[in-house]
Amino acid sequence: xxxxxxxxxxxxxxxxxxxxxxxxxxxxxxxxxxxxxxxxxxxxxxxxxxxxxxxxxxxxxxxxxxxxxxxxxxxxxxxxxxxxxxxxxxxxxxxxxxxxxxxxxxxxxxxxxxxxxxxxxxxxxxxxxxxxxxxxxxxxxxxxxxxxxxxxxxxxxxxxxxxxxxxxxxxxxxxxxxxxxxxxxxxxxxxxxxxxxxxxxxxxxxxxxxxxxxxxxxxxxxxxxxxxxxxxxxxxxxxxxxxxxxxxxxxxxxxxxxxxxxxxxxxxxxxxxxxxxxxxxxxxxxxxxxxxxxxxxxxxxxxxxxxxxxxxxxxxxxxxxxxxxxxxxxxxxxxxxxxxxxxxxxxxxxxx
Amino acid sequence: xxxxxxxxxxxxxxxxxxxxxxxxxxxxxxxxxxxxxxxxxxxxxxxxxxxxxxxxxxxxxxxxxxxxxxxxxxxxxxxxxxxxxxxxxxxxxxxxxxxxxxxxxxxxxxxxxxxxxxxxxxxxxxxxxxxxxxxxxxxxxxxxxxxxxxxxxxxxxxxxxxxxxxxxxxxxxxxxxx
Lengths: 352, 178
Description:
The structure holds 2 protein chains of 2 kinds.
Chain A: E1 5-9, H1 10-21, E2 25-28, H2 35-47, E3 51-54, H3 58-70, E4 75-79, H4 81-86, H5 88-96, E5 101-107, H6 123-127, E6 138-140, H7 145-162, E7 165-171, H8 172-176, E8 178-182, H9 218-238, E9 242-245, E10 252-255, H10 258-273, E11 278-283, E12 285-287, H11 291-296, E13 301-306, H12 312-319, E14 326-330, H13 339-350
Parallel strand pairs in A: 2-3, 2-4, 4-5, 5-7, 6-7, 10-11, 10-13, 13-14
Antiparallel strand pairs in A: 1-8, 6-12, 9-11
Helix pairs in contact in A: 1-2, 1-7, 3-5, 10-13
Chain B: E1 2-10, H1 15-28, E2 32-39, E3 47-55, E4 69-72, H2 77-84, E5 90-94, E6 108-112, H3 114-121, H4 127-139, H5 147-154, H6 163-177
Parallel strand pairs in B: 1-4, 4-5, 5-6
Antiparallel strand pairs in B: 1-3, 2-3
Helix pairs in contact in B: 1-4, 1-5, 3-4, 3-6, 4-6
């Protein structure tokens, strides 16, 4: 029997998806516009006899996640932009120690305390390794409540598979809006990837496991980083994901992620009705970025739309190798572009 | 079919609930739906607005900027809805609280005295359901024939006794459109 469709807020849907993915422990600290997620976990993790802790700060929460995940538990935290900034130290440590975890960022406008309205100004922070040191982690960008649930559910497997944090980069719109969602069936814990590296449960092993990011011998550390970056190359080949529409005959390709991609979809449909050949390329994984796909389209004209002053646009320029004319249209400070705004920009570029 | 509706009123009028129930019913009628609320921090009396979309297709932007239909629950919301309603769109006005004429002569204007009808039914709190009945009749986008089942899960057990009154309010709202 098909699962029943439920009407849920994005924040709640991500919470329920995490519960069904087998999240053993959630640690969070309240911040708008992701509060419904923390509230959902407060209620439902306890019902499932799992761990829920409202920490005294974001820094504390991420380190609780680090500790719990180091023991092999499926652990998660969520926050919004200023709170995710506070978590960056912990994320760098987790990446340095190869500890899987799930982090949800329901982004709001920044910098600083900024505002509580939706924004996409955290692209650089999420995709460049927002803390110190050489590292990346998986970043998934949902465009709808359904996809927010699906990607959160999958993020736990991806994190375990690749032994690294997986981040859901949503925004206040995805978190706050309600849509119909069909939730995945709860995952059988027996299907989880074993974690022989985890601390505790020594069993028959003679050596103790150390989960740590400290590497004081430069020669060894360099080797370890190369090993990790070889894994990143594997991830780039296998995890990368995007959605594309109407690229074949496109004179102009719109590129956007999350909420902006929804706006672009509407603008593309309006443009097509006017006879304008417009396509849409939406990265779903922001790291790894669909480098190859953009590279294959080098030479085509692009319009990148973001709720920021322009961040992903730099990746589009980078991976089209200077062969494409790449325009940018952005709104920021919590403003959301409209379909009409993007259509006007399309017409300006195509001079039609 | 895609019907984009912008609902506006003040906090306490049930604008947010109306938007949620509209898309909940739409979902039960196998439509794609999106609901995005916008409200002030005040418990009552602040602004309350909702962008709601129901469609037979995948929904593009969740933000309603040029609505096909606008719900004007109070006086303050009138200029806002006049500014964003699309050319020839439907404007349903709560004429119990909005006593002036709209400047939008191109619009299909429907006046429903929601508060008066609700008060006659027994409580002004049903004004939002009267309006939702009118919206259903005027647009045909959501039939609301599954509302009773939706209300059963929407309301907690202590409030289920109000379901017949809600259904009556919907019916009166539909009748008011004629």
